[in-house]
Amino acid sequence: MMVQTTWIALVLGFWSSLYLLDVFLKQSKKAIARRYLSFLDKSGLSVSVCQLRWYSPIFNRVFLRLGQWRPRFLRTWFTLGVIFSLLSMLVSIFILSLLVINTVRQSPVEHQVLTPVMPGVNLPTSQISYYMLTLLVCGILHEMGHAIAAVREQVRVNGFGLFLLLLYPGAFVDLSTEHLQAVSPLRQLRIYCAGVWHNLVIAVAAAVVLVLLPGFLMPFYSTGISVVVTGVVSNSAVSGPRGLKVGETVTRINDCHIKSIADWSSCVSASMREKWNGHCLPVALIKELDTSPRSMINRSQNQNPWEVIDCCNSTSPTHLCFMYHTKKNADTNYACLPARTATDRPMCRLQSDCYVPKMEAACVYPAVDNETRLLRIFHGQRPPLLFLGHPLDLYYSVSLSNYVPKISFIPVNLPFVIETFCKYIISLSGALVILNVVPCYALDGQYICRAFLELVLRPTVPDPEIRNFVYSLVVLFGTILLIINVIFAMWTLFL
Question: Where are the coiled-coil regions (predicted)?
Fold first, then answer.
């Protein structure tokens, strides 16, 4: 809650300062105000409440060239977009209606179709950059679709712009209203549906990249052998000089081999289920290594004694309290042993797992509570890292990747960045398809619905007032449907 409040304060503080600065410069002395207004006019920038906009006609020639490239192909391309958008409108209305009905009936909904993305709430602050970049890319390509289709249908493009609304970036294209109203409803549909169609193409392209990514990265990264550390939470149990380092490979947790992130999750889960994991030590060695006060009293003066450490009654950075029993004595014994020396011995789960020829051996277990585990993490070329704690603390303290760089200077985070960006594009671009085709005010679905009704009803319903009445009913229904879904989604998010 503290982090969310801080983010809200920073965002509101930024926009308040920017708006007040804009008002101050516009109302200051004539020379300063004239220069500031001239700067805004030349740069295309404008400031309003919680919004920063940029608008320019500099891309008009680019849109003109793209719109005139292979006219027949573009006509077929954008006609496919019309078919897809109309089908998507029906599917979207059906899904959103079914979601409302199930929510009202209190039927279980396994997957929430419409989920608002709120930075700091259900969006990690560390991934805000991915979210904003994805919105910007999807918005630009969406509006480029409208612009290219408009040029193809002989509609003038006045300009192109970008905006930032609070934390949500986007794009827009300014089309000539007179030209747009003069073309036929079918040509209008090609223009209105181009944005949604391009959102689908973007999502499919990102999915293809995600599937083919291992092949693309094969010359630079190896997979299926180990995993590589891409991040370590600071001040965690596995950070510090002796902890895990970014770029190191992780191959095992105890005797559980790790070749992928799925193996890592399985090994951590297995360590939580396995209550007893010990190590085989000869009883004579246990007594020799034991540094507890009772053992030191019984030790002869001819032996080279360890420093007295009573780790069974206090904490120690090098020693750990172990418990064991022998064949001669079934009572539980405790010994304070050097953790690394003890864990270097073979692992055991039962006393019968330990067999040393001509010598009595015991399986020593860490004397810890039921939730704590002693794990050996094999990483890089260094000695295994000893982790004492809950396995979930280990799981959430480390970020890993399946892609291990073949050369040291290759960035370890590049595959993660590409994967995350593709997943965001698939999710957000797909969501834009579902939202934009809904016949709702201020969305593409509103204009798609009008053009489609004009195309279908004009031959049979010549009265424009009746057609407008039908259009108003459909858009009103779509708007109410979307608002109800947003309310339910917000309620679910903050419930």
Answer: none
Pairing verdict, β 221-222 and 249-253: unpaired
User: In 10 A of CB 177, how many CB atoms?
Assistant: 11
For the record, the structure tokens of 193 come out as: 């549906």
pLDDT < 50 regions, the chain: 1, 300-304
For the stretch 325-366, pLDDT in tens is: 887 777 888 899 999 999 998 888 888 888 777 788 889 989
Backbone φ, ψ for residue 213 (5° rounding): -55, -45
List the one residue out of 55, 65, 47 whose CA is nearest residue 174.
55
Q: Is 153 a catalytic residue?
A: no
Q: How far is CA 440 from the centre of its chain?
A: 29
Parse the chain into domains and list their residue ranges. Answer: 2-47, 60-124+135-198+429-494, 228-404
Structure-token pair, residue 22:
């804009």
Q: Locate tokens 């947790």: which residue?
A: 253
Among 162, 11, 32, 55, residue whose Cα is nearest residue 23: 32
Nearest in space to 223 (alpha carbons), one of 272, 267, 258: 258
Q: Is the dihedral of CA 448, 451, 455, 456 positive or negative?
A: positive
CA dist 476 and 483 (Å) reads 11
CA distance 90 to 113: 15
Measured in degrees and rounded to the nearest 5, phi and psi for residue 417 equal -60, -45
Gap between the Cα atoms of 287 and 126, Å rounded: 50
Distance CA 282, CA 289 (A): 11
211-269 pLDDT, tens digit per residue, is 999 889 999 999 889 999 999 988 888 888 888 999 999 999 988 999 999 999 999 99
Nearest to 238, CA basis, from 392, 124, 94, 118:
392
Q: In a 10 Å sphere around its CB, with 0-12 CB exposed, 13-18 middle and 19+ buried, how is residue 256 labelled? A: middle
- Catalytic residue chosen out of the listed positions 143, 153, 248, 454: 143
To 10 degrees, the CA torsion angle through 70, 75, 80, 82? 140
